[in-house]
Amino acid sequence: xxxxxxxxxxxxxxxxxxxxxxxxxxxxxxxxxxxxxxxxxxxxxxxxxxxxxxxxxxxxxxxxxxxxxxxxxxxxxxxxxxxxxxxxxxxxxxxxxxxxxxxxxxxxxxxxxxxxxxxxxxxxxxxxxxxxxxxxxxxxxxxxxxxxxxxxxxxxxxxxxxxxxxxxxxxxxxxxxxxxx
Length: 181
Fold this sequence. Notes:
With about 180 residues, this protein is of the alpha/beta class. About 35% of the residues lie in helices and about 20% in strands.
């Protein structure tokens, strides 16, 4: 079990729970480890689905504060009680530095990032995607309907055609040579 998938997303209460569940199910089916950030919203749903799938022992969470200070403390403690791992990453200079360190750690460890950004914001989600992009990682983004997702700069988003991945887009990297420069 060496493939690690980062599943991240907006703190806003997700309206796309079925898509989050499908992504967790596909990771479990492929016997992949799952990492996430432990925030409310998408990350919290990922944890709930991992616990329900009895996948806790293959689930790792990085949080930018202590568990006691985390808004998701209840589900984090439940994950731990089922064998999951929760690690605190803190930078005492600021809360935001800790969040960026957590996002970077997820991007560095994951072979693939599956992102669930909100339409309006999701700065942390996009930060993790930009770090993963710089590292050349596979990035898959959920964007229901025909709305284009935010551009990252080094590739083009292509919709995934598989029935499990409807509404998901994959970043296809373009080399400078391919771009005709």
